[in-house]
């Protein structure tokens, strides 16, 4: 069975350009079609063949959306999870801001423990050099991780480029307990800039 699957994959690789766009106005690729049809098996096969989805995530747009945005709007959670966690797309998705914006804000992904764990690891991974990781984590409100960062001495009063502290961000996303935790020993400052 495995040999048969491998031979089918090799045949597909020879004949199929998974980045090939339709010549009509929508610019869809086979990956877009798999996402529209919510065909998890075909999506996984295409990702294996593709090897690296840099072009698919970035340059290839359909309906004005890159592939990741397209998956959020047109596909289901299973396909989106596969796309986000695929070994060839994880780093690319992260650097494009996908992990930072899509996972905490896409309601259907909230209960997906595997995605959340990967998202948190990515933010805390020193090799990825995420600016102000505690600000990113405050959007989603994972209290235990932030508490461990507090115990390790991370500066929770640091301002980001918009003059927001992690507590400001937690409050903005309605994480009341986290907001209170982060405001302990908060220095006095003018909050009028956020109104």
From TrEMBL:
Key words of the record: ANK repeat, Repeat
InterPro entries: Ankyrin_rpt (IPR002110), Ankyrin_rpt-contain_sf (IPR036770)
Pfam (any one): Ank_4
Keyword field contains Transport: no
The protein's name: Serine threonine- phosphatase 6 regulatory ankyrin repeat subunit A
Organism for this UniProt entry: Fusarium agapanthi
């Amino acid at each position: 069975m495995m040999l048969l699957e491998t031979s089918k994959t090799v045949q597909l690789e020879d004949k199929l350009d998974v980045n090939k766009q339709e010549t009509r106005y929508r610019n869809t690729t086979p990956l877009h079609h798999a996402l529209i049809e919510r065909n998890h098996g075909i999506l996984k096969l295409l990702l294996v063949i593709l090897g690296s989805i840099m072009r698919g995530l970035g340059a290839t747009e359909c309906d004005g959306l890159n592939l990741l945005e397209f998956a959020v709007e047109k596909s289901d959670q299973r396909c989106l999870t596969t796309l986000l966690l695929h070994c060839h797309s994880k780093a690319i998705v992260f650097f494009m801001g996908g992990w930072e914006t899509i996972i905490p804000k896409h309601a259907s992904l909230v209960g997906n423990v595997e995605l959340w764990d990967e998202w948190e690891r990515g933010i805390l991974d020193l090799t990825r050099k995420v600016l102000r990781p505690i600000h990113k984590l405050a959007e989603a409100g994972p209290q235990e991780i932030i508490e461990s960062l507090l115990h390790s001495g991370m500066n929770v009063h640091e301002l980001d480029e918009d003059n927001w502290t992690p507590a400001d961000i937690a409050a903005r996303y309605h994480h009341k307990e986290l907001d209170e935790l982060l405001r302990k020993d908060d220095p006095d400052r003018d909050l009028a800039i956020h109104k």
